[in-house]
């Protein structure tokens, strides 16, 4: 039974949810008084927009993927006592200190990634913030726990620092365990962890995961900004460095102020929302603000998904893995037909606590600014934590330009001192170690050791260190130095030590976990942008969305005039900077000739002044034969379409004008093939070697 529940959520929690969950915290262990906070919402399955908290995506399981629900698991947890206490390497025999592993294995050597730009790192963090945010336990009165002062406190799990540590002179790094979360049915059981944001890749990082946040961010059809769409709105209550309080920003995600490259990317997406909303509104002055906001949000979230699957994941996973997990977007004119209501869309614990943290290895020392004058400025990352000053005075634009013009580091065991010594440092040597935190977090969440995950991912169980496919012999020796056996290795450490897959930027085990997770986020999301579900986009609009590139969005939002086609790769002869004008410009206020099939999106056609067939009442204002050659009579009325890509449409929706290339092609909806089956993680062989406590194979 879980002894270790806590009554406080992190301070980012919204009051009503906080209240509900704090009730769980106090009553979780007392079935008689237990009130489950997870009330099944009633859903309108034909509502065409996502709910703000992610509920009702899966109509039969409306809580799947909702904000403030537990992470799902690929494998049962590896708790020493089966329910709650972190993994050790045998009864009462500790694993090496996470700090020690960080010191020995996650050293500061800087190997640049072959192709990846530093923007690829930043976009990864942005995606990460859209789909996951753990909650930490709190102390009495909601205070932050100091687990170095009170090592034995409930929910404390400090990281010991050795006397001979080459940097820190304190003997302990603070580590607070994640808040225990109830499962959806509130049954008692083993310790789970809470995701405070919507699990779906749905733009929650831009728009928030709850209505209160969204209200604070919205300004009619637009997102609030300071000074003419320039900067994010201020948040006087933001988590920020002391001196920066008055300059800190508000966005859909509370971590926005963490460092300026993140602030800049958040700003870019806010500006982009406002650009799309403005185009739509200008074309349709009569469309109400709510309609413009929701339609824009649906399109912008779809663009975020498209860039993630089409551009970013491709760089991270490479073509083979993309194909293996069916992650590549379909070509124009086709829907993805693999939505499967049986697939759980939730974020998996091992993905969040370890695999997707591979991105910490990509972080370079500096945040680079490239001014329009061509001057380049480098800022040591740790000098910028929680200080948004750099984003002001054109900083967002020059930081974005700097990010795609500078390299990220390679995914390997090395992690920069900026985050292994100086993370959130406010005075010399009082910083944190992110690599050690990742390792400790894995143990806190009950994540199995690396070797077990290899088996889960259909790789061989390595019976000794020599059997590991690492990126160097030195790597093997490093692991041997800190771990007694090959069965002790923490998942984060083992995962980033593997050689990267061909054409990708991540090792095989993490490619497996990241691949399966993004497949679940695709097949289990009824609103997935290219899915052929009842809330789908009209195919013509989907085709426009698929023209989206991160480069074009940066052209539209940061004032640059030329940019590499693939901004997740460094500029090179095979990825030269090209003129912003040569990128396809998605026509997002697309005028669709409605033929009655697109009923749920019929309002869409109001965009650009295109009037749905059923409501076309305007008198023919063209007394001459219409461009289709039919005389315009009282019952056959022509409608003039304004804006680019417009034309003259007749009553059947055929384009009769010269500005569009004939009737819009309709693609037959492909017949649904039976879902091939979510790739199962093979059942672990029930042999002693998988007992993380005692290793029989040793
Ligand atoms: C300057 C860049 C970054 C900084 C300073 C940073 C910092 C942090 C910190 C402090 C945590 C919380 C650790 C814990 O207490 O367990 C965290 C969590 C995490 N980070 Fe990063 N990170 C950065 C970039 C990235 C990137 C590029 C990725 C992935 C591509 C990433 C993925 C994650 C994930 C998956 C988590 C766990 C999230 C959760 O469930 O709460 N981070 N990061
Ligand atoms: Ca989300």
UniProtKB/TrEMBL annotation:
Gene Ontology cellular-component terms listed: extracellular region
Annotated compartments: Secreted
GO biological process, one term: response to oxidative stress
List of residues binding heme b: 360
Pfam short name (any one): An_peroxidase
GO molecular function: heme binding; metal ion binding; peroxidase activity
Keywords per UniProt: Glycoprotein, Heme, Iron, Metal-binding, Oxidoreductase, Peroxidase, Secreted, Signal
Protein name: Chorion peroxidase
Organism: Mizuhopecten yessoensis (Japanese scallop)
